Amino acid sequence: MREDIEVDKEKILYADGGEEDPNSPANILKRYPLLVGMTPGEREILNKRVRRRIDIWMLPMITFMLFINYLDRTNVTNARVAGMQDDLKMTDVQWSAGISLFYVGYMISQLPGSLILSRGKPRIIMPLMMFCWSVPTICMPLATNATGFMICRLLVGLFEGVFPGIALMTSSIVKDELPFRMAIWHAAITLSSVFGGPLAAAILETMQGVRGLHAWQWFLLIEGAVSIATAGAAYWCLPNWANNTPWMTAEETEMAQYRLVLSAGGHDEGKNELSIFGGAKLAAKDPFTWIFCAMHFFLVIGQAYKDFLPTILQTFGKSKLTTYLLQSPCFFLGFLATLGFGWSAGHFKENTLHIIVPLIFSMGGVLMIIMTEVVGVRYTGVCLLIMGTASGLNLQVSWETSIIPSPRHKKAAVIAIANMCQSQRKARLTVPSRRSSSISAVSSTSHWFTPYFFLTSQEPLYKLGGGLLLVGCGLSIVTAGLIRWRVVRLNRILDKTQDAQNEVFVRQGIEIKEKGWRFPH
């Protein structure tokens, strides 16, 4: 920087010539005329009001939508215990193929679904998707053979794009608030299994033969109907994006945008600086994309038990009713673990250990399940397995969505194909674009092969499946460490850049104490 330039002490300058940084906090505020005239105290009050509105309107609705989403996704696991596989005369391989086809459809739909959502209105698109997956769920009781079952599962998977949509929407929450709030809706995945067991027991044990239908048919019909009702309610409760939310005032809308841009280091996710394909091209070049993709892939492998847990619990030798109910305590502990680790990660601003430590306990749980036939030990192992993998997957999702800011359409591409964009501005290292969760478009391919590790011929210990779970958890730990290593390395580059910049400021009598944006670890 030239020595003769006069510098305003409230401005942060680029290190290559005295140009004012448009992404300094003071200049970010200037973008929002309704906020400029407020005192800091008034802005803080408005900020709390916006956060409260998000917590009251958006979070409960998306949590319940995801709750229903996972009930519909996993309802066939309880239906299998109730005799669905036998009634449709399916072999184990045919059943596993049906489970796999759900994830084939789920993967295929992610890219177009995420891109459409990024360009459209979530409060219309997400309820419509929910309605569309509910229709084949209701139609599944009409299936009379394996082919009908497989087609219905494929269609359910094609329309179940709510999870990436939710991840894209909640990435619009500021990064310090994100882990716990994402834990709230992500815990719905676990909570659905808490209530799924008792719900299955209530229907499957009481409605056999009613109006000539099997109990599992009633089970699928009722869950499909509830999904349709939820889709109707979602239209009134969901927001659109930060700059277009019906239940916010003009001041609240500006604050919603301001707090997000400030959290992202000045990057406005609503601005389309690049085309979708341009962002995807840059994203594909960034190592973070593929490391997070690998991590999600391995975490999904670590959760391969979810499609077969009732079958595993059935090997305990208990009645069907007890088998249904045994699921709830395990998943409730997983629910508490997800919330607890999510809050702790946000409070302490640390992700790596919050992922690794629970996964170590999960690996211990797997060993307890596959090494003994003692029911008490195996059941404790199931609890540990669920607690670690549930909280680990939630934090991986929140970590990738907060690690880099970007325009929304870039995040949509990331959601679908595990992309991240990176660019250079001036003489400093700029933060690449933020990712969101559904790296799963690539990593969900693990669902294609994991069902074949839990065949009835492996009863009662399912050692082959247990070995798969150990591999998934172990490699998830490795990738978490790799991400931490890269984050530390990039932050050192940012620190060196700012230190060099500050030396120039000090020579002019300016001291900058606060660091700029850094990659969260």
From TrEMBL:
Keywords from the UniProt entry: Membrane, Transmembrane, Transmembrane helix, Transport
Matching InterPro entries: MFS (IPR011701), MFS_trans_sf (IPR036259)
Taxonomy, superkingdom: Eukaryota
Transmembrane portions of the chain: 54-71, 95-117, 124-144, 183-204, 216-238, 288-305, 325-345, 352-371, 436-455, 461-483
Compartment(s) where it occurs, according to its Swiss-Prot or TrEMBL record: Membrane
GO CC annotations on file: membrane
Pfam families (UniProt xref): MFS_1
Membrane topology: Multi-pass membrane protein
SUPFAM superfamilies from the UniProt entry: MFS general substrate transporter
Signal peptide start-end: none
Protein name: Major facilitator superfamily (MFS) profile domain-containing protein
UniProt-recorded Gene Ontology molecular function terms: transmembrane transporter activity
